[in-house]
Amino acid sequence: MKIIFTGTGTSQGVPVIGCECAICLSGDQHDKRLRSGLYLSEGDTHIAIDVGPDFRQQMLSVEARTLDGILLTHEHNDHIAGLDDIRPFNYIQKQPVRVYATERTAADVRHRFSYIFAEQAYPGAPRVELIPVKPYIPFYLGKVEVMPFTVYHGKLSVLGFRFGRFTYITDANDLPPRSVDIVRGSEVLVLNALHHRKHHSHFNLEQAIEWGKRLNAGLVYFTHVSHQMGKHGDIQPTLPDGYSLAYDGLTLNI
Ligand SMILES: [Zn+2]
Ligand SMILES: [Zn+2]
Ligand SMILES: [Zn+2]
User: Fold this and answer.
1) How far is the CA of 74 from the centre of ligand 3 (A)?
2) Which CATH number is correct for 2-253, 3.60.15.10, 3.40.250.10, 3.30.420.10, 3.30.70.380?
3) Which of 84, 166, 210, 235 has its CA 20 to 30 A from that of 98?
4) Is the pTM of this model over 0.90?
5) What is the mean pLDDT of each run of 10 residues along the chain (254 residues)?
């Protein structure tokens, strides 16, 4: 399984427009973070997790030609705003793109992209097949088995996904016990880590490290990173062995 981090930034991305902090002005490519997303390939199955506002640029950067499906973690704008840009996949694959989401997230997508789901959609509108998923009910997407599970994002229940030895969790600040059982022992685990202060709906760096240990993961990568985290080059050396800040373009073969 090949994993590419297509984006590792929080909702405004890094640099933030107009910000003159040292991180936003950094010349290091590791400090340029598009909105969080992942591209996962196993054989000829290709999956994107989330379809944020930078989706077009992200699919170009991984040279994607086909998508077997998009998994949505939740309906916040930084995870769905790029849905219109699936149109090239409609054109190449000559079919709707399958988008997997909970009923609540699907309802939000239908509402916000009403033109896609209109009875008489205009010619050239994106074609999407929304497929409802429920936490803890695994399914296959192409050859890849996907286990969705609940994580808490403030007051919102959102989805994390386990794929065999690999688990992806973004936008969370707590996990229920049932999900802890599913995630525990992942060889490679992605967790969100926003910055250093406490936050109402995201792990901060200290909490994300604690959770990595509690979940007994092999290698842990942090995503959904704010400019307030600090420069990649300053933070990475402070992390325990096996823990890394992810960065855009980071590729793992699992
Ligand atoms: Zn987010
Ligand atoms: Zn900044
Ligand atoms: Zn969110």
Assistant:
1) 7
2) 3.60.15.10
3) 166
4) yes
5) 98 98 98 98 97 98 98 98 98 98 98 96 94 98 96 98 98 98 98 96 98 97 98 98 98 97
